[in-house]
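SAMPLE LOG
Freezer: B-3
Tube label: C17
Construct: single chain, 335 aa
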Amino acid sequence: MITLNAASLPLAAGIANNGFVAVLLGLFIIAVVLLMAFFVLTYGRIWLQAFMSNVPMNPFDLVFMSLRQVNAKTIVDARIQAMQAGVGQDPTTGITTKRLEAHYLAGGNVPRVISAIIAAHRADIDLDFDRAAAIDLAGRDVLDAVKTSVYPKVIDCPDPEKSPRSTLSAVAKNGVEVKVRARVTVRTNLKQLIGGATEDTIIARVGEGIITAIGSSNDQFAVMENPDRISKAVLERGLDAHTAFEIVSIDIADIDIGENIGARLQADQAEADTRKAQAMAEKRRADAIAREQEMKAQVALRRGQVVAAEAEVPRAMAEAFRKGTLETLNNGSPS
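STRUCTURE (predicted):
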């Protein structure tokens, strides 16, 4: 039987405390190892990729990104892409982790914004991160806008996908219809992309300008001889004002001669005049017939009045005989 004296009690307590501390230290070390293993398995590849790409990245930022529901790989890939392209290196206005996170949380498309900035930098186009992010959040495809700035886009006027007609129809001064199909070459105006009018406005304005130019021509031959005159007249009107595009050129792709609308309108007018004249003649005929009937009625009325007057003569004579006031003429003198 083991007995503990008073001197051995502090020693036992110290051993127990040391054992408890050792257990806590062991649990702490195990937790640290597990956390490190979790970090390595989850973020190790991303952090190593950033480190090897010379992109400084705090390991805790990767964890905080996940807590903020941000895709850490998307942010890191964007930073690496910008670093390798040599864009957005300014620590204040450049492409930083916090600014990329803010754009991601705002619902923006981070990869397309970075690709657009790199493409603009290669094409020597002034496009910083703030403008690119604003264009993206406005609902425009910023990468497509940059590509359109580098490689102009061709728009059909009228657009066969949005209009049932394949040509524009205009009438020259001599009344002949001219059918035209145009192709408009445009490039994006990044400064007016936010709030600027879209392709539909360009098509509408160009169509209006072409119709006006043809309408001011004397005949269809003037249009067919100099189709470039139409393009110049349309370009001089500044149709790309307040739009998201800059018109590079307007080319007449096809010209056809339609019907003589002026002659048809004249024929229609002549036919309408003929019908109007016939209607007026018929009205006059009807008025004459009515007047004739009125005159016949007047004649019958007057005859009736004469007969009535003649009927009054015998009555008056009888009345005179009765009263003895009737005088006869005998040899020119009264009897």
